[in-house]
Amino acid sequence: MKKDTHPADYRTVLFEDISSGEQFLIGSTIRTSEKGTVKGVEYDKYTVEISSASHPFYTGEDRSLDKTGRVERFKQRAAKKL
User: Fold this and answer.
1) Which range of residues forms the domain containing residue 52?
2) DSSP conformation letters of 62-78
3) Do the beta carbons of residue 11 and residue 5 sit within 8 Å?
């Protein structure tokens, strides 16, 4: 097997759905600065807007998500790059 072709930092990461509050422990190489605790064990935490726990296709519910501030955040990021 070739060296340095696979991610070396594969570990369990806590993914949290902000829409439903559900949490999932999944193996990942994503780098995060946040920490979260599940059953007394601390994991790196990554926040997602939509997951299978809140997506209307999987839940069968019809709901709209609040996206206020997304345009403003985009404009702020774009202004920093100019």
Assistant:
1) 1-62
2) ------TTHHHHHHHHH
3) no
